[in-house]
From TrEMBL:
Top-level taxon of origin: Bacteria
Role noted for this protein: Converts 2,5-diamino-6-(ribosylamino)-4(3h)-pyrimidinone 5'-phosphate into 5-amino-6-(ribosylamino)-2,4(1h,3h)-pyrimidinedione 5'-phosphate.
One Pfam family, short name: dCMP_cyt_deam_1
Protein's recorded name: Riboflavin biosynthesis protein RibD
Keyword Hydrolase on entry: yes
Pathway participation: Cofactor biosynthesis; riboflavin biosynthesis; 5-amino-6-(D-ribitylamino)uracil from GTP: step 2/4; Cofactor biosynthesis; riboflavin biosynthesis; 5-amino-6-(D-ribitylamino)uracil from GTP: step 3/4
Domain CMP/dCMP-type deaminase span(s) in chain numbering: 5-127
Amino acid sequence: MEFSAPDHRYMARALQLARRGLYTTTPNPRVGCVIVREDRIIAEGWHEHAGGPHAEINALGACREQPAGATVYVSLEPCSHTGRTPPCSQALVDARVGRVVAAVGDPNPAVSGRGLQQLEAAGIATACGLLDGPAEQLNRGFFKRMREGLPFVTAKLAMSLDGRTALASGESRWITSGAARQDVHRLRAQSCAILTGSGTVLADDPQLTARPNGALAARQPLRVILDSQLRLAPTAALLHQPGQTLVFTTAAADASKQAQLEQAGAEVVRLQATDRTERLHTALHWLAHERGINEVMVEAGAMLNGSLLQAGLTDELVVYMAPLLLGPDARAALQLAGIEQMQQRLNLKMIDSRRVGQDLRLTYCPCVTAAGNAD
């Protein structure tokens, strides 16, 4: 389908508006909407927070003149079902708009296409696929959860130029610059959850909060700890921060330790899986289905980072590389098992590189073969 230059311009604006919900809409997607009449924007809106009005409703409510006959640009297909809010497709029908252009269809297989079908049945012209790549990228976690039942997983690594994350003693503060650490807080703030292992918590006692501007963000990501033996202490700093903490453990874990953690405010979930790879997959699946988690940021040690990567569960690596050397006795960033020949190596594709303070931020995705294994 051919789209005009004005179509591209107004959809780009809708995507710009959608980004305003980058930190607030979870578990919902980030969506923007622009209403245009005679090449004039008569209203704009975006989805501001889960449970609140969707982008189309906010835009309709902001109209400076009647929307009848106008063209609506929305970065995601209007919803056609009733959830915490009424369906947007019906609101557009009631407003008697003339045309609706969606950047991309709803990825939920239960409702995909139905919003546009309802509009077409009411005599409203529709089009879909304008700037669909950027629109899907903005909501990559939501799309993956809808399509695969798993969240989008980003592993954050802070390392020296020789690939080390800490001295042999465990000392690691600070490898990267303040600018890089502030950038990490921005990534935390837009994530739905932060995942780490009990070993990291025991070694560093982190808070795992999002402080993107030096102050606590209004919405804190869910803190998720993998702790098969429930080694986490009830006095751990992360249990006493704003937001929620979830601890995944095994079925055989000590019930008294679980009670202590729950009394300290943690939610403890026992996983039946015994194999480590199966536990990782089960935990991520649980987060997607039970908590609506779209995006997980991993801030963990070499073993967990390596296990996730080799299990094919890591979608992206964000590497902050500092201009310093720690030597061969320092701790490696990733522990990868079973690599003895070059053909077993894990290849990565660079997505982005930029300078953050005195450090480099390098973004990679794993190369995947047709069989689904990292190549």
